[in-house]
């Protein structure tokens, strides 16, 4: 058989490759494995060392952060404890400062209160403190009302039946306004069956019948926008406006100025000599003092003289004092009842009342 050139080449290649093909088949059948040392792959070893080093550094960093956080937490805790302790100390200092600041007031208040006696009754709230005292003297009995105003809402003046020319008893006015205390205020004049306040009268900062210059022994007395008692003789509206009156009424005469007796007009010394009286005064700390004196009649046989009122007011430590309408008008209401004994035998309707609220 004659072989072509192509077939001769194929046979030669097969014979040449046969040993290698057999070796591969044997290796596959034997399942041999070959392990190379790490040194055969130097780049891999470097990578492993690098990873191990980074892990160590990361762990160390986390430990340091944890330690720092714990230290910070302890520091914050100490700071908070120090802050709270400082806050308590500051509160104690503030409380002590307030107590020390109020101490002169409390000392002064105890001193003037002792001069009047022991309160028979007291009403106190956030806006007012009203203390009622009994007065006993040779020719008369009466009552003192000491009032500390803590708010502009604690006191006002009202008109009888809330109208100019109207009149009602102090008890009726106090009940209608739900006041804790009340006293008759200024003088009045009757005209045509109506009862009008005397002379200059101020209601809620406004002049009821215009301003009237003080004449003879008339004065104006009331409260200003700082809860201070103001009063005296005023020759012009501008003069009174400078006092910023909130409310007030007029009557006669002035009893004390700066703690000193003021001259009592001759007419008022004898007409009548003794009578039921009402007076309003103030203290250095702007507390108010109201005296209401009883008398069995207005014929001069009982009640107080105006000089005796001056002596009482000065003895009680008052600074400025003003005589209000007296006689049958003198009425003191406290805690829903009339505590004095009006000389008319019944309550007299009057046009103006000072009321106090809790």
TrEMBL record:
Domain of life where this protein originates: Bacteria
Keywords: Glycosidase, Hydrolase, Membrane, Transmembrane, Transmembrane helix
InterPro entries, per database record: NAGPA
The keyword Transferase is annotated on this UniProt entry: no
Pfam families tied to this protein: NAGPA (PF09992)
Chain ranges passing through the membrane: 12-29
Keyword Transmembrane attributed: yes
Domain Phosphodiester glycosidase: 178-357
GO MF terms, alphabetically ordered: hydrolase activity, acting on glycosyl bonds
PANTHER family according to UniProt: N-ACETYLGLUCOSAMINE-1-PHOSPHODIESTER ALPHA-N-ACETYLGLUCOSAMINIDASE
Official protein name in the record: Phosphodiester glycosidase family protein
UniProt organism field: Paenibacillus rhizovicinus
Biological classification of the source: Bacteria, Bacillati, Bacillota, Bacilli, Bacillales
